[in-house]
Amino acid sequence: LLFGDHTQPILNGFTAAAVAGLASAGYMADLSAPFYMGVGLSGLQLAWQVNTAKLDDPVNLQHRFGSNKWFGAMVFASIVAGKVL
């Protein structure tokens, strides 16, 4: 892979940047506390993906990639909760 032995630490950095970006967007949209709790849980899900990924195991990576649907669902639910509650 492009980042070699540094892949997982770099992906952890991308995860942190994604969570920070989502939190910033929520702040700019004036979303309430449930949004931030959901974003935190979404960040944990991304961190799980990165830290349990076995880069030499295609089946493992397929499962991690497939779990992105849950990340998207959590972000969507967080936005709705942040607006409604």
From TrEMBL:
Any one Gene Ontology cellular component term annotated for this protein: mitochondrial inner membrane
Database matches in Gene3D superfamilies: UbiA prenyltransferase (1.20.120.1780)
Keyword hit for Transferase: yes
Keywords carried by this UniProt record: Transferase
Residues forming coiled coils: none
GO biological processes: ubiquinone biosynthetic process
Entry keyword Transferase: yes
Record field: transmembrane: none
GO MF annotation: an example: transferase activity, transferring alkyl or aryl (other than methyl) groups
PANTHER family documented for this protein: 4-HYDROXYBENZOATE POLYPRENYLTRANSFERASE, MITOCHONDRIAL (PTHR11048:SF28), PRENYLTRANSFERASES (PTHR11048)
Entry's family note: Belongs to the UbiA prenyltransferase family.
Name of the protein in its database record: Uncharacterized protein
